[in-house]
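YM 10:42: MARVEL domain-containing protein sequence, as discussed on the call
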Amino acid sequence: MLNIAAFALRGLLVVLSAIVLALSVVLAKQQVIGSPPPETSFFSFAGAFGLIVSAIAILAIFVNKIPRVGIIAADVLASVFYLAGAIALTVALKSVSSCTSSSDAARFNRYHNKLLNGGCMNVKDGIYCPNAGSSNDEKHIDSYTSGRCQQVQADYVFGYIAFVFGVASAIVTLLTYRRGGTTTATYV
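YM 10:58: structure's back
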């Protein structure tokens, strides 16, 4: 019974890891000036790491030579990465009061947020963010930064969900290991 739960959790973690990785990579690829923010880069790493750990853990369900303690440790580490990345994105987006508000303050906050503007450069009149448009082009700013804001929110929500399911997966693997549901290889 626990093997079925472990397999289901692993399948869900593969999907969640792929979503986190895809959203983070899309956000990073839209960065036109400078390198992507470290929060986005780290969450891309967390998604890729979680995908690899989930694939190895699914393989470990069928191959008994993979040490379960290593799988549990990798699950915990992947979960910590998910939590750290989700918290980093949440904190970086804290200054943005609303992703969809058309108030001047909300537009200003979205335009100047490093996760949402796609990179900016200093010009003589102030800051210019090519992807987000100029401060005179309010419709373009709203559509671009609102869309990216919602992508960042989706990214960290999936990160928090992956954290919860990663911890659950580590617990199920530990219970399976302790109850003798799977055999482990003896290394001499």
